[in-house]
Amino acid sequence: MVTVASVESRETLTAAKYTFTSESVTEGHPDKVCDFVADSILDACLEQDPGSRVACEVLAKEGNLVIAGEITTAAKIDREALVRAAVREIGYVYPDEPFNADGIALFDWISAQSSEIAQGVDRAVAAEQGAGDQGIMFGYATDETPELMPLPILLAHRLAYGLAEDRKKGNEPWLRPDGKTQVSVVYENDRPVAVADVLVSTQHTASTSREQIADYVAKRLSPRILGGWLTPSTHFHVNPTGSFVHGGPSADCGVTGRKIIVDSYGGAGRHGGGAFSGKDPSKVDRSGAYFCRWVARQIVAQGLARRAEVQVSYAIGQAQPVSVKVDTFGTGEVGAAEELVRRLDFRPAAIIERLRLLRPLYRKTTNYGHFGKPGLPWEE
């Protein structure tokens, strides 16, 4: 059955009243397993050698896990041990499933970074370090939450994290690592007013009934996580297929970089198309997007606009960006926002220095969004 998301009578929505939906996934989702493995390898390299160049891709399917890409580093790491530890940390430890930390077959197809890329990125003058690739990056911020994030993606992340938290604490022993969440928020005059729909699909043990899972989602998980955003009219969709026993890479193929909208703004802000995980900060797909988020946050935090989006573009091997653009969507002083942006240095080396990106901090970013979480330098 298809339902139309809105509060009360689910009436036809207007420009002044609309519903916006965003999704998140748990750390046990197959794609997120791959992202976490890639970022674990990245952090291990940076911990020993801050100058590491890492572009790591991961694929997981059934009992197999492939790591591939280009890594140039002085770090001495045991990649197989790192991979198994990361999978174990996520929670895939069940020997009766094809994908488990001790039983997976690992295929390592890592080579060194291309010398042609290296000659474009590395410079005799460190400040003129070239961009690791061409591309466009966006950063977004809105004052609709204290975290300066869109409410739908923020709540979806919190629900997904809540599933993992309850599983790891043993609060709900039937929970398993894979899962997805989705939250539909009603807006009136561009301000959030209520949660219309909540969708939770979570992996579970075979002996757990759908009714038991629905009761947990509606009566324990959602009230704790969503609080006052719930209304008596909030509609719940729980494991819509009826059963979700087989999950994770045992059931579905996972690949790095396939959750770029989950990783950013849930569709409320634009995305340039480049994935984050597994890439060191010389890759502007990552560092440029982080810095644009930091800049957008400054615009909103300083009261120059209620919403802000910043776009930057680069040419591979060049330090100065090709273009920088700011949009306040008619919610503030665009001239003042542009003046703030003009004073900032968007060269990759300057971004890396300002945000202190040559540190092993990337495993903390992998799950439940790269933005809106405390303890990350672009959120300060």
Description:
- This protein is of the alpha+beta class.
- 30% of the residues lie in helices and 23% in strands.
- It has 3 domains: 18-26 and 151-247, GMP Synthetase, Chain A, domain 3; 30-113, GMP Synthetase, Chain A, domain 3, CATH 3.30.300; 135-144 and 262-379, GMP Synthetase, Chain A, domain 3, CATH 3.30.300.
- The chain has helices at residues 30-48, 79-90, 115-121, 151-169, 210-226, 260-263, 284-301, 334-342, 348-355, and strands at 17-25, 53-61, 64-72, 105-111, 135-142, 175-188, 191-204, 235-238, 254-255, 307-314, 323-327.
- Strands 1-6-7-8 form a 4-stranded mixed sheet, covered by helices on one side. Strands 4-3-2-9 form a 4-stranded mixed sheet, covered by helices on one side.
- The model is unreliable at 1-11 (pLDDT under 50).
